[in-house]
Amino acid sequence: MLRIRDRKRAARRLRDLVKSGVPRSLGLIDGTGLRVLGRIAPFAPRLAERAVDWRVNRETAGVILPGENAPLGRYLAKRRSEGFDLNVNVLGEAILGNDEADARFELVTSRVRRPDVTYVSIKISALCANLDVLAWDDSMARITERLAALYRVARANGTFVNLDMEEHRDLDLSVEAFITVLDRPEFHDMRAGIVLQAYIPDSHEALERLITWANARHALGRAPIKIRLVKGANLAMEQVEAEMHDWPQAPYYSKADVDASYKAMLEKAVSRADAGAIWLGVASHNLFDVAWALTLRETLEDPSMVEIEMLEGMAPAQARAVRDEAGSLLLYAPVVEKADRDASIAYLSRRLDENSGPENFLRSLFDLTPDSPAWQRERDRFRTSLDRRHEVETTSHRTQDRRTQKVAFPADGMFRNVPDTDFTTPGNRAWAADILTRAPHAEPELVTTTAGVDDAVARARAAQQQWQAISWQERREVLARVAEVMESHRGDTLATMACSTGKTLREGDPEISEAIDFTTYAAHLTLAHERLTERLEWQPHSLVLIAGPWNFPYAIPASGLVHSIAAGSSVILKPAPEARAVAAALVDHLHEAGVPRDLVQLVCTPDDEVGRHLVTHDGVDEVVLTGSLATADLFLGWRPGMRLHAETSGKNALIITAAADIDLAIKDLVKSAFGHAGQKCSAASLAIVEAS
After folding, report:
1. How far is CA 306 from CA 211, 280, 595, in A?
2. CB-based burial of residue 469 (10 Å sphere; 0-12 exposed, 13-18 middle, 19+ buried)?
3. Dihedrals φ, ψ of 114, to 5°?
4. DSSP line for 489-513
5. What is the predicted pLDDT for the residue at 359?
6. Distance between CA atoms of residues 336 and 343, nearest Å
7. What pLDDT shows up at residue 330?
8. How does pLDDT run across 556-613, given as a tens digit for each residue?
């Protein structure tokens, strides 16, 4: 409802939400109030809007701070008078373009210039748009330029800058940018900080690197750095990314491991803090962790090298107690202007989800009294994690390296998606850089006579008779080898697609994964086919013609090829003229895996009577086309009785309502319309936007 600008439309949305059901968790008074508001909203939309605004502001007050100058100033003054320091984090919608990045940078620097703001946090994705580890040099140049500019403003105004961390894919870029900028002579005296997330095993290596570098920096008489240790709060999105690409998730798989990792990192950092090169921010609401951190810091010559931190508004009573015990407390305080309030709701939802998790300390807070069941449970969890801090794995879950790893596909017909390439790993980035130096597959020769077409068709039909006679298990074994060969040539195929059809590595790599998945799934389907042959008899088509496209030159033809041979047919591939080199590579992969050369053939013809002769040949039992509707009509015009399976394009629309997350909708619309250079069959060509 808050996203909808039209007051009447928002009121109707509220009414519909209430009609769908009011959560029992609201209780009698709040639930009844919401029902009443939902009923009167269409008749009093201004009243409904103000009521919702008031309640949202009330619920988020003290957790998310107002970004407007006057109320922010009053809040900062109030908290400072109460003995708290604030780490200001400017929230906003996702940065989609350079203009938005510029606007966010100006907003952050305006906060840095305020005399009542002494500490700010910012992540690299808020500094620059469209960062990509594949474009490492470009991304690094843009990040360091922005970060250096921010440091200059911060130093001039006496404001501390902390480089925040959000996603695993940002870890290497963030650490490298932090070190690179502070190594510049102008920042040798600059005190700055960086966040490490304990729920990512990779952070252990990053911590060691930062400490080693900070010690060398300090030995040269340069300023120390701050390392802020947090547990991490982006687990759901990390799991989604891992699931979509069939990667192991970057974070640990259990809360117990996260807690043990946090303590291992904290103990290591404290043990190295006496050198004076680093100081620590210990961010946690777990009072057992806080107490242990306070105990550890007493071992230091200067205990002030360890600061305790919490989230603003999440546990006020406990924050006051920690402030009194520790002598100070830094509160992480998200700040948002009214226009970006949507982003604050997303932040709040993520924090509440994190803090209400079944194993989170805050979930037990209201029942936590000495020796209560909740106390004993949290005490035992703390002791277990403390005991395991030296045992927890500290190596990355994401170790894929295309340069050395070999993938085997069992011939049992079981199906599982093959992982895409994880470009966050250094090995895969080096592999990707090498790909672009490789020569593409050679262009195949054209078949320029009808006699040549007749010969190919005759050989294919003859080979099919022998192929049909082999067992289902033998077909599965061949298809498993096909998948292995496809995987082993992934880099070469990407190079050929880049050179001949303009495919980027980001878009080409999933296409190769898709082709491999088609292959292993075709093998999987033969299990069902084999069972059916116990009750049914069928005769596969002797010869299938695949007329492939150029926009997906590998995966789509591969699908037709492998499913046809799995069923017992022979295949001729007639590729689009722009994709002949890719098609030649694909057919070579099948031959290398043991598919008979006459069973699967590449026949490239000119778009003349020779091509027509192939499409309409009496020896071709079925034609599978991926292309335009005009091409499908042309084929049927040539041979009206043709058995044609055609996948053609249409007018693809994206409907965007007033209730949509506009930034996400724009991101998805642009990706759909312009991804793959706009040449996907499903590319959005029409946006239907609700007027509001």
Report:
1. 15, 5, 65
2. exposed
3. -70, 135
4. THHHHHHHHHHHH---HHHHHHHHH
5. 83
6. 8
7. 96
8. 999 999 999 999 999 999 999 999 999 999 999 999 999 999 999 999 999 999 999 9
Match 């708290």 to its residue by tokens. Answer: 84
H helices of 272-337, where?
A: 287-297, 316-326
* CA 200 – CA 252 distance, rounded (Å): 6
Torsion of CA 578, 580, 585, 586, to 10 degrees: 90
Question: Residues near 405 by Cβ (< 8 Å), separated by ≥ 6?
Answer: none
CB 293 within 8 A of CB 307: no
The token pair at 656 is 């965007």
* Closest among 385, 360, 386, 364 to 375, alpha carbons compared: 364
User: 245-265 burial, b if ≥16 CB within 10 A, otherwise e?
Assistant: eebebbbbeebebbbbbbbbb
Total Cβ atoms within 10 A of residue 536: 8
- DSSP characters over 592-614: HTT--TTTEEE----TTHHHHHH
Q: Are 239 and 249 in contact (CB under 8 A)?
A: yes
Cβ–Cβ under 8 Å, residues 557 and 514: no
Q: What's the half-sphere exposure (Cβ side, CA atoms, 13 Å) at 452?
A: 14
- Token pair 């940018």: residue: 177
Residue range 61-387 in CATH 3.20.20.220: yes
Q: What single letter denotes the amino acid at residue 419?
A: P
In whole angstroms, what separates CA 672 from the centre of its chain? 17
CB crowding 136-149: b at 16 or more within 10 Å, else e: beebbebbbebbbe
User: Strand, coil or helix: what is 323?
Assistant: helix
**pLDDT, tens digit, for every residue of 398-449?**
999 999 988 889 888 789 999 999 999 999 999 999 998 999 999 999 999 9
Q: Measured between alpha carbons, how far is 57 from 404 in angstroms, rounded to an integer?
A: 54
Rounded Cα distance between 336 and 89, Å, is: 9
Distance CA 397, CA 200 (A): 9
Using DSSP's 3-state secondary structure scheme, residue 189 falls into coil
N residues, the chain: 692
Question: pTM of the entire structure?
Answer: 0.90
Cα–Cα distance measured from residue 171 to residue 165, given in angstroms and rounded to the nearest whole number: 7
Rounded to whole angstroms, how far apart are CA atoms 563 and 522? Answer: 5
Query: Residue 440 and residue 491: Cα distance in Å, rounded?
Result: 10
- The answer to whether residues 195 and 230 touch, using CB atoms and an 8 Å cutoff, is yes
CB 339 within 8 A of CB 90: no
Q: In sequence order, which residues have a C-beta less than 8 Å from that of residue 691 and are 6 or more positions away?
A: none
Distance (Å, whole) CA 339 – CA 3: 10
Rounded Cα gap, residues 486 and 111, in angstroms = 53
Measure the N-to-C terminal CA separation of the chain; round to a whole number of Å.
12
Listed in order, the ranges of the chain carrying CATH 3.20.20.220 are 61-387
For the segment 289-305, the average pLDDT, to the nearest whole number, is: 94
CATH code at 426-648: 3.40.605.10
CA–CA gap between residue 93 and residue 183 (Å, rounded)? 31
Cross-sheet strand order for the sheet of 644-648:
600-602, 570-574, 543-547, 622-627, 644-648
What's the rounded Cα separation, in Å, for the pair 651 and 633?
A: 18
Task: Outline which parts of the chain fall under CATH 3.40.605.10.
Answer: 426-648
- 59 CB-near residues (< 8 Å, 6+ apart): none
Q: How far, in Å, CA of 67 to CA of 145, rounded?
A: 26
Residues 6+ apart with CB under 8 A from 615: 545, 547, 574, 623, 635, 638, 639, 642
Cβ distance 137 to 172 under 8 Å? no
Asked if residue 299 lies in contact with residue 270, where contact means CB atoms within 8 angstroms, the answer is: yes
